């Protein structure tokens, strides 16, 4: 009678050939680290933004872990504290920016006032200089007028003396 059962060696050979064929066709078994790395690198190469491996247990899935963290009161408190600290930091930065803007505005206003004072002082100095120049001209004109008047008096006196001299001679 011919045995229909294959010998253990034949079964092992067939099993090995089948595994080799599957490995050649599909790559190594999905549970190996190299397979996951290969899938991640090929997913990245294809432009896929992320690669989510098939997790062995749903409890290990990141979404479940996140939900579990969110449900934990200590984690909630930690998240709220982190959110509050972030909000306080943002408010602090906004307050600093506001103060910086105000300081900058005050500095600009101070510079503007200083420039205005400087212009006013220049204007006053120019007016004083014009007044001095005008006063010098008036003084010069007055001196010239006084000289002319004095010369006229001297001329008048000379004329009168000549007139008297002629009258005496006559």
Rounded Rg = 56 Å
Which structural class do you get from the secondary structure elements?
Answer: mainly alpha
State the helix count: 4
First-last Cα distance: 200 Å
Mean pLDDT: 79
Could you explain how this protein is built, in words?
- This protein is an all-alpha fold.
- The chain has a domain at 76-145.
- It is built from 4 helices and no strands.
- The protein has helices spanning 8-26, 33-45, 62-71, 73-169.
- It is rod-shaped, with a radius of gyration of 56 Å.
- The mean pLDDT is 79.
- Residues 60-72, 100-170 have a biased composition (Basic and acidic residues).
- Residues 1-170 are annotated as: Disordered.
- Residues 1-51 have a biased composition (Polar residues).
- Residues 76-99 have a biased composition (Low complexity).
Spell out the key features of this protein:
4 helices, single chain, 170 residues, mainly alpha
Any chance you could write out the topology, listing elements then pairs?
Layout: H1 8-26, H2 33-45, H3 62-71, H4 73-169
Short description:
The protein is 82% helix and 0% strand. The protein has 4 helices and no strands. The longest helix is centred in the C-terminal third of the chain and has 97 residues, at 73-169.
